[in-house]
Amino acid sequence: MSTPSPIEERLRAALDARARLIDAHDLSPYRPPTGPAWGRRRVRRVVSAVAVTVAAAAAVAFLLLSGSPDRPHPTPPARDPRTPPATSAPSTHGSPTSKPSPTSPPETAPNTGPGATPPAR
To answer: What are the respective helix, strand and coil percentages of the chain, to the nearest 5?
Structure first.
C-alpha cells in the first residue's frame, strides 16, 4: 500500500477532530417527520387516477347505452335465398282470373295523399 498524500492526511485529521466533538448527549432518538402525511404529488396522482377511471367508465356507459331502443330491425330478404327463382313460368299478367302474388307490387299505385293532384274530369 502506498503512503497517504498530505491532503488525505489533513482530511482524515479534520474528520477525526470533528467526530470527537460529538458525544452521546448530542445524539437524539429517531423521530418521524411531522409534516403532512400526504404530499401534493400523491394527492395529484390519486385525483388523476380517479378522474381517468371515471372518464373511462363514462365512455363505456355512453357506448353501451347510446343505441336507441327503437332501433329498426333488419328487413328480411324479398324472397327465400335458398329457393331458386321461377324463370320458366309463363307470364299471366292481364288475365282477369289470376291473382297478384303478395310479393309483387300493384300495377298502378293509387295517387291519394297530401300533395296529390285530383283526378281530371
So the answer is: 35, 0, 65
